[in-house]
Amino acid sequence: MLRFMSIRTLTYLILAFVASSFAYLLAAGLMHPEAILYPPIAKEPVPLETAQQYLDARNINPDVPLFQRYANWLGGLVRGDLGVTTGTNKAMVPVWEELLNRVPISLRLVLLGTIIGTVLGVALGMVSAVRRRSIDDRAFTFGSFLILALPTPVIILIVQQINQGVLDLTGWGLPAINPINPLLEPGSWDAISYQIKALVMPTIVLTATAAASYSRYMKVTALDVLGSDYLRTARAKGLRRGQAMTRHGLRMALIPMGQYFAFAVGAAFAGSLFVELMFNWQGIGRFAISSISLADVNGTVGVVLYTAVLTLLSATLADFLQGVLDPRVR
Amino acid sequence: MPAPLGRTALIRRRFFRSSGAWIGLTTFVLLILVAIFAPMIYQYGPFERDLANSLTGPTQYHWFGVNENGLDIFARTMQGLRISLVIGIGTAILTSLLAVLVGTVAGYVSSKGKWGAIADGFLVNLTNLFLVVPALLLMMLFSPALQQASWLWMIPLLSLFAWMLTARVLRAMTQQLVRTEYVEAAKFMGVNPVVNILRHIIPNIASWIIIDTTLGVSAAILGETGLSFIGFGIQYPQVSLGTVLQDYNISAPYTWIPPAMVLAALVISINMMGEALRDALDPTSDSSRL
Lengths: 330, 290
Known about the structure:
The structure holds 2 protein chains of 2 kinds.
Chain A (H helix, E strand, L loop, with lengths): L1 H29 L17 H10 L8 H13 L16 H36 L4 H14 L3 H19 L18 H38 L2 H8 L4 H39 L4 H10 L3 H29 L5
Chain B lengths: L6 H11 L1 H23 L31 H37 L3 H20 L2 H15 L4 H7 L3 H15 L2 H8 L4 H37 L11 H6 L10 H25 L9
Helix pairs in contact in B: 1-11, 2-3, 2-11, 3-4, 3-6, 3-7, 3-9, 3-11, 4-7, 7-9, 8-9, 9-11
């Protein structure tokens, strides 16, 4: 088990490294953060020396070869330094600090959405498979079909519009923008309850999308398991369909699901990008959008590194779950 | 005695037996016709401003209403539908081509000695690498540069990050087929590997490819709308359903409900056709029907 886990983790580490290096070279090659020193952004010419200093301080000097800049970035990475934000924004905030401020905001969304969505999806898929062709099955299948046919922004709009409708009708609704209310005193019960209420709608959105795709996969694997010989034996022994499924089938049906988990976190990140944009949360997703549109090389690569680490952790967790569930892979 | 049914006739008959296929096909054809003809006869263009009527609901002049910037929502939705359809269909075809290429080649060479195993390992790792890279972020990186050249660049861009899962399935299917006697026989008769793949492997995995291409259209449309919505997709001189949705206003629901309904109708109709095709092409799929 330990050997299996360490080999897998090492592979993921290499993949994360390759992905972020790739992202650095692409971002540094495609973006032009030095544009801020020239017209039309700069109103008057910048002296050459000042310009060089400005560019070198941010490691974005186009006169330095691309691979030298990559080596500088790599050297920083080894020391735990991700560089400073660049681009058309002149503030030199360390990327590390920016990420640290924003990760808690995004992570609670992604984690809550994935965990609730996975559990709900597995449960719904199980019910669908065991009670095949019943009303529940039809309702769940139709619901997931509908959710998967809509892009995330539209799902968010539906949730927000319903909330707005309820607000107009009853005068009580959930907060639609900002994760925290800056007017309330931090630490007070009002502020905490506001945070919890603000979390409800984004979590519904992420949970719905995750549960929809999960229940579909789960239904397929559960149906495969239901058709297997050992489950027929369990049924012949006198267990009911549901009992046989939970006691003997669930474990087998969950094994392939473990591998989807790694992708689910990535999908939740993509979903959180829309959520953060439309609910005005200043998390990593917002940072990703702004740093790419501002041509912020270091910031963009920081976000890629964050998603790579997130995928790495979830893939490791998925492997761990698979190892626990399936003794054959240990 | 009636003449025996050919394979095509049988599939056609199975396909049209399901009501889902009829609903899906009718809606899809209707949407294509509307996308082609509506912008020709409608009196407003997607960028014509009618500021006097901005933020007014549907009327007989502005069928879906007017948004905050005085732009007609119906005109924009129809123009967006055109772009989204072209991108969706184009991306699905290109994605399937990429997936077939990688999947069949990797599956075919994997059993061919040491070098085959190395080539297969390389392709498998390439597929896995594309699966773990943050596709959305990379698309956001590339897209603005490509959009300056042409909006059609969206097609290769979306395909580049969409072929992996299909390629993995096709590789596994090819590996099974390579071991069958008729493929082995063709191999020993000295048939060129390319001819062998085209003649014996692809026809056997064709049903999967067709289903996947159909469902790929809706996946591509969803990807494109999402990317355009956050501002990294289709840019100014063109409009897509994503950019139309971008102008949403919660206090005026007509600004987003009509384009969202058109988008939903499009995706649902394609998915319905895809599911009906799956049933028609693969009679054993009943147990694994989603």
